[in-house]
Amino acid sequence: MAEKDLKNFLKKIEQLNSIKELIENNPYKKKELSDCKNHEEVIILTSKWGFEISKRWGEY
């Protein structure tokens, strides 16, 4: 794995962990996320929260 890909991979993990922490501490956001019906809705919602998880780690 190239260094750039590794950095992007770790960044994605960091963002996913931040989302996990956010929904563990905020029942409203957890409900919003659980109400998503597909991957696209999850991407749209988490983007509104300030996260960028739509790209695969090798696509940055």
Quick gist of this model?
The protein contains 3 helices and no strands. It has helices spanning 3-25, 27-34, 39-48.
Note down, in words, how this protein is organized.
The chain is mainly alpha-helical. It has three helices and no strands. The chain has helices at 3-25, 27-34, 39-48. Helix 1 packs across helix 2 (27-34). The radius of gyration is 13 Å and the shape is elongated. The two termini are 14 Å apart. 2% of the residues are buried.
Descriptors:
mainly alpha; 68% helix; 60 residues
How many strand segments? 0
Q: Sheet with the most strands?
A: none
Overall form? elongated
Mean pLDDT: 91
Instruction: State the helix count.
Output: 3
Low-confidence region ranges: none
Question: Would you list the SSEs in sequence order as H and E?
Answer: HHH
Radius of gyration (Å): 13 Å
Helical residue percent band:
55-70%
Taken as a percent bin, the fraction of beta residues is under 5%
Q: How far do the termini sit from each other?
A: 14 Å
- The secondary-structure class comes to mainly alpha
Task: Spell out the blueprint of helices and strands.
Blueprint: H1 3-25, H2 27-34, H3 39-48
Helix pairs in contact: 1-2
